[in-house]
Every structure is written in structure tokens, then in C-alpha cells.
Amino acid sequence: MGSLAHMVEDCNGIVQLYSDGSVYRSDENVQFPMPLINNGVLFKDFLYDKTHHLHLRLYKAAVSQTPPPRKLPILVFIHGGGFCVGSRVWPNFQNCCVRLASGLEVLVVSIDYRLAPEHRLPAAMEDAYSVMKWLQAQALMMSSENGDDAWFNTSEVDFDRVFVLGDSSGGNIAHHLAVKLGDGLGGLSPIRVRGYVLLAPFFGGVERTKSEETASEAMLNLDILDKFWRLSLPPGDTRDHSFANPFGPTSTVRLEEVKLEPMLVVADLFAIEADSPLSSTTVVVTNSLKSGLRNNETLYDIFLLSYPLAEISDLARYDCAVVDLEHGPDGASAALECIHALVATWTPAILRLLESSGGLRR
Questions:
Q1: CA distances (Å), origin 107, targets 150, 151, 168, 320
Q2: pLDDT at 327 over 50
């Protein structure tokens, strides 16, 4: 008789990997008990990958606040969760997308992707690209006589203005998507990616940063982050794999030669000062990205959004900006304003539309 499977990895009861390859995942340990908000936003689920049975959820405001004609830009939202947990249906991600759809007046595309350790990287990155191909198919369908889906009507949706927003591990996925697409085309015509937002992207490396060496954070501590990497990286690979460390010794891509679209990186200055390992690696990677940006103009300093929001248009001067969000009750609205500024200032056509309707909304 064979021996019973034993646990070989345990992420605080959230994800447990057993010796026979089976996985136990507990959603109740990580889902956030919160009421769902509405904000006059409609949503609908679509199947984008039949092979892996992957879905995405679209969000748009029921009534536009901007007089027509106003085509909605597309904002692809990639959730976080250490590559191991998370779903478009989680209340925290649902509420985030509702706020984005209503606050930015965009068509939000919130995606599910294959999770580790059942599906190790690069599965999630491949799924993100599959979403872009799915969007391309919708755009091509709408340009034909058979295109009649109200969610993708070309008179209402602008496939030429696509933005990608990734949170934590989703930010890592967004980074790799940016590198793959390069100039924003990537064989995806008629859709075009115009910019990226990376919210505290999840990166790593074998060599510890100073903050990692002295980290004392209770929840996302070094131990749990290392476990996420062990569960998500290809078996036998270390945190210097290019999936974790884009500038590591195994990377086959010279990022300084990649022409990247504009990128906004949102970091947490408070967490960095408090020796958060997640935030410190964000800064290391962002500073290294500068050589691949189109104009090689990078905003190095992390600044606070107590800085007058009227001056947030300064972001337009840079291809890459690292922004810190203040802690407190206004943090969410500050993040929304910051992302709004990205969509507006880095796309002149959108800026003109916003200016014609009163400028950036407060």
C-alpha cells in the first residue's frame, strides 16, 4: 500500500500543496467580507478561453456622465494574489472594478487567469495575452457585418485606447505583457495598448534588498512571499527566474532594448520606510525599467498625493512614474485620481474629451 500524501507547502492555510501534487485552496481565509457596491454600473461575464474554462467580467456605467459622442477606453484589470489565489468575483476586486468603471468612465475588463501551483508560470502571463487576443477578436467582429454585441459596439468602445492595470502579482503579469507587446501593437491590430498601471507589482530575487533583510511585516512577510514564489515558479527555479526577477541572470530579454509604452507604478512609501519587502522590490525594478522607456524619461522620486492634484498632469512629462498613495480614508480616491490622470494625460484624445467636459473630475 502507498503512503498517504503529506503536506509539502503551506501558505497560512490559504494554499496547501501535498506530496502527490494535490492542492487544497481555502477561499474563506482570504476573501474580504464586504458589501458589494453598485454605483450605477452594469457588469456581464464572458468566457474567453474554452480550453481552460477562463472567464472575464466586463463593467461599464449604466449612464454616461459625458455627453456623446464619447467612446469608452478599455481598462484591463489583472487581480493580485501571489499568482495562487484570487478571482474576478471576489468582493474586493468587484468593488474596485465598479469604482474604476464609474469613476473613469471606461469599459473595465476584469480577468481570471490560471492559478499556481496547479498551473505554474508562465500560465498566468499566457492567459493575459489570450485576453488581448480575445479583445482583438471582438474588435474584428464589431467591424464586420456580424458585430452586434452592445458591450463592444465600435461607436461606444475605443479599441485604439486600451490600458492595463495590474495589482501585486497582477502588476507582474502586466509588466511581462508590456514587454511582450512592446510598442503596444504586438500583432493585435486593431486594438492598441496605450499605457500600463502597476499597483505595487510583485517581483523578487535571490539577493535580498535591504528592506527584505530587515522585514518585519506581519501579513505579507518574507516567508509568505517566498512560499508564493516556490508555488508559482517552474519547479526547481529560483527567485532569479525572469518571471520573478526581470533583470536576473536567467533573463533572455534585454529590457533596455524593449520600447515600452507609458507606465505608472504605484508604490507605498509608508511601507517602504517600514521595511516592506514587497514595496522595496517595486522600487528596484521600476528604477531599472527606465532604459526601455521610449523617451528615457523617468520620475525617480516617490511623491505624495498630498501634492496638489491639479498638478498631477505633470505625469505627462514622464514615461514612467512612481507614485505613493497617502494612507487614510482618501487613499482610494487618490488612486482613482492618479489612474484618471494616466488615462487623460498620456492620451491626448482623451484629454481633449475631458477638457471639453470640464477637465479632470474631482
A1: 12, 9, 21, 24
A2: no
Q: Measured between alpha carbons, how far is residue 227 from residues 12, 76, 214, 241, 292 in Å? A: 10, 27, 18, 15, 30
Kindly report, as residue ranges, where domains of CATH 3.40.50.1820 are found in the chain: 37-356
pLDDT tens digits along 247-270: 888 888 877 777 777 777 766 544
63 grid coordinates: 449612464
CATH architecture of 37-356: 3-Layer(aba) Sandwich (3.40)
User: Degrees (nearest 5) of the Cα angle 170, 260, 88?
Assistant: 20
pTM above 0.85, yes or no: no
In this prediction, residue 159 has a pLDDT band, given cuts at 50, 70 and 90, of very high
- Name the grid cell of 335: 488612486
Cβ(131)–Cβ(56) below 8 Å: yes
* CA-CA-CA-CA torsion sign (22, 28, 34, 40): positive
Query: Residue-wise over 185-219: b if at least 16 C-beta within 10 A, else e?
Result: ebebeebbbbbbbbbbbbbbbeebbebbeebebee
Query: Based on C-alpha coordinates, what's the Rg of the chain?
Result: 20
pLDDT tens track for 275-316: 555 455 555 555 555 444 444 444 333 333 333 333 444 544
Write the burial class of residue 20 (CB in 10 Å: 0-12 exposed, 13-18 middle, 19+ buried). Answer: exposed
Q: Cα–chain-centroid distance for residue 250?
A: 24
